[in-house]
Amino acid sequence: MSDQQPNIVLIIADHVAFAGHYAQSRYDYRWPALEQLAGEGAWFNNAYAITPVCTPSRASLLTGKRPDKHGMRWNCEYPIPYNRTEFREDEVLYCQALAQAGYQNHYVGKWHVGTDNGPDHYGLSGWSLPEYGNVYSCQAYCDYLASINEPHPTCLIEHHLLQPRLNGTRVLMKPDLPWDYMDGAGVLSGSAEAHEQFFVANMASEKLQGIAASGSDDPFSLVVSLWGPHHPYYPSQEYADLINPDDIPVYPSFDETLTDKPLRYRVQRDLRCQHRAFERWPDWKTWQQVLARCYASGLQTDAAIGRIVNCLADTGLDKNTLVIVTADHGDGIASHGTGWDKYSSFTEEVGKVPLVMRWPDKIPAATVVDDPVNLLDVTATMLSAGEAVVDHPLPIDGEDLLPVIDGRTQRDHMICDHFGHSGDVCFQKILYADGWKYVSAYSAGDELYDLQNDPFELHNRINDSATAGRQHRMRQIIIDHYESRREQREAWHPPEFWERGIVYSSAEWPRDESLHLYQLKTQQADENLSPVL
Question: What is the percent of the chain with per-residue pLDDT over 90, rounded to a whole number?
């Protein structure tokens, strides 16, 4: 154990409306606690989920590996072929590596990375719930309400996408299943203290107070995983009052016709997201109110984050503590022809996430990082700071961000993955390079965007001949990525590991790898283009 090892506090928000919504000139929506933390540390302008769906994103954050390594490509509660519902028994999570380096490790809040095994299975002390977790109905939440002398809250549902019969009704927030009232927006009754975000923040603060009172000299890690601002958007009245729906201008891609987008966009919009053709939420006036509740839920999430950060200061635990705030993925709300939830396409709205890091005396205050980074890098940064090593035949895929923060290294490109949203399969590799974004989608239509001049992805340039050279170069980078992973796979799988049965079954390796690579190579060869402009 080294005197330089910091405590590590990782705060994960869930499903944040960020790209296109946060800190925009047309509407100034910001989180004050997050902004203050960024002023004391580093803000990452171009941070992304490695894949924009809850379980695979969280599994990648816990392991530092891409989904094709840990095997969770879609949400764990769905019985999807070739998808793991638990980590392999030989998998190494960040906390297990930190434990070997002398850390005490804790976890509070949403898990959603397995149907049976929770944080305690991996040596994490604290509290969570199986699968997604039904927080408003769990016993721990009911005990919390009793401790603060609050009744069980009700909720006025103003708009519900899939059950319009609930519009204007008040329900007891004690659902049989977590999704019973999920696709809605409204206001939670009673004190703000009864909100799920403050429940988790209170539990995290109690954990920090216990750590401080223990007097232990061992470094610790704590993950605080919030359930929000993921829909349903039911903020407390105090936070709902902070956002005036009438002030929210039309979202730039709200009325997008999708004529230059692959067919999957229209399928997502019309079937999954209930397009206006179905006469559900047809006008911007309704979306203004829904977005207002979404933004207010974000502000309440920020307030919960602020409480945790303040508790670190109050307990004196902030002095040598690396604090990281991020989210598992973004939110497609109101985008690309009226979106809802996540997409099976890697849009900026669902892929981009907030990322802030503070480490006193190690990260300079008010640092801004423009390099493209992802959540795998967060894991690598925690392991590097904690002087921990993952001992496993499958190496982690992220890179330590501390050298990026201080300018010692730079990243000129980055590749993310997407497999579709929970069963509607669409295998994609997403390359960010030089301000451009290339989406390679196996048999589902490629996309190319100039994000510097078209941040809302309104103009797919894939059929623009002026971009031919750029496309060729970007596809070659993706081809090289596939080739390197094929070479790595052969190195990962020596015969003794196959015999021990601890690496991959045939079902665990994505079936599209070789086909997608073949498609890219064929496309590249057919174009007969020079790779250099």
Answer: 75
